[in-house]
Amino acid sequence: MSESDIIKNISTFRLKISSPDGDSFKGRVSALYVRTTEGDLAVLPGHTPLIAVTVPCAARYITHDSDGDPHEHVINVTGGLLSVDGDKVALLAAKKN
Predict the structure, then answer these.
(1) What does the alpha-carbon distance between residue 5 and residue 12 come to, in Å, rounded to a whole number?
(2) Single pTM value for the model
(3) Tens digits of per-residue pLDDT, 73-92?
């Protein structure tokens, strides 16, 4: 199996993380974990559309390299909004220093 076949077999969605300072991340991920006013939330490919208010947390997202290996990234946010709409997910948040 070639590298491109490995990547094609990983389900992903487009994630954009923005703050007042600009975009912190823009790319394809296989998962986003964030805390909302309703509790912890995992966004996976095919998630139901929603809008949620986020609270201070360490938001985590998973990217994959060209070999398909997962890499976890963490961004500390003070709160904001999460929008899930089909293949597009946006996290609008203020970052903690």
Answers:
(1) 14
(2) 0.87
(3) 999 998 899 999 999 999 99
